[in-house]
Amino acid sequence: xxxxxxxxxxxxxxxxxxRFTKKIQLINQIGLLATISTFLLMSHLYLIHDYYYIPIxxxxxxxxxxCFVFSKMRLFYTSFYWVFTLVxxxxxxxxxxxxxxxxxYFLIPISLIPVVVLESKTKGVALIFVAITTFWASFYVKExxxxxxxxxxxxxxxxxxxxxxVVFLLSTLVLFQFKLININYEQIIGKQKTDLEHKNKEITDxxxxxxxxxxxxxxxxxxxxxxxxxxxxxxxxxxxVSGDFYYFKQKDNLLFIAxxxxxxxxxxxxxxxxxxxxxxxxxxxxxxxxxKILSSTNxxxxxxxxxxxxxxxxxxxxxxxxxxxxxxxxxxxxAGANRPIWIIRNNTTEVEEIKATKTALGGLTSHEQVFDLHxxxxxxxxxxxxxxxxYADTFNGLTNKKLTTKAFKQLLLTMQQxxxxxxxxxxNTYINNWxxxxxxxxxxxxxxxxM
Length: 451
Description:
14% strand, 2 domains, alpha+beta, 6-stranded antiparallel sheet, rod-shaped, Phosphatase 2c, domain 1
């Protein structure tokens, strides 16, 4: 048993994978079985006095044994091709020398071996073709070939019994190898599954913790609704945490509200949202001018991410629509970075759009970027909306087409007879039905305020 173990492990190295080790062992086992079978056949020929074929079998035995030299050199597939070729040739020649022995049927199980050993399907099919072609060729050649030695019926039967035993051993070897490979794969897959589940739990727990931090950083919706009685915030992150965030602060007689869309979504987007939210707070501490707040936030984000003129490798930034509301005069001040504001006035059938400054905060935007300031008044019954691009960019589950900004505008117009709390529900239901089974590709944020 120790000798057998040594032989089948010729060429195996400690760094080899379990799967590759099994394949090496299978190739060596095939070579060993072929060598032993050829040697036993040579002994059998001696017993039946078929001396003509003995030297040929001796040469075949010695040639087959050289397969272990190839294995030692780690030329495993060369070893397999060498054994396969010699066995095919040996079986073919023996089948025409002993036409009634049935040894040619040995080619059938041989033809299955390449499927187990070879990675390449093309090479495997080619060797199967060679084995099957040799099988049928043996019947054709027998028709005109004259054997050098005619075996008795007993010798034919003995050869047939030996053949059956070799076929049985070879089939058992192949099936056993399949079983070992499957068991090994099951163990590997089971361990990988356990490891993945453990790592996934760790990652999910970390992301859930990040979600708690992000939620704590977001304004309390009830505070927003208390200050703006008829308003809504529809917030649907793509992942557990979000790159979109809403912002709300009250300073003196002004209410500040913003819809922001940071680069990315998930954990990277959430990290950006922390940075950008903190920079908004810092800017608001020094001015109430929304355009100047965006300029200051732009500089703060670029400084935090080391986005200098000489180092623009980090292009992360934020799109935002920022408003201040003077409730005493119903005056709205707006400034935007790539995100507009939509206004729907009472008893109108169109959406007024004030476009944003066409640049983001951070990234490649200049440190000295100035943002446009827009001021307008709203009357009772008027409404305005600020939002990220996630809602309009949502794909339909059936047509795989985006909702589009135009359709989003028309949708809001159809809802103007509904209070804001119902508008949020209607928008949420509509986008869920629109998306269907399709994947949500981005965070969704829509804020509506009714005056």
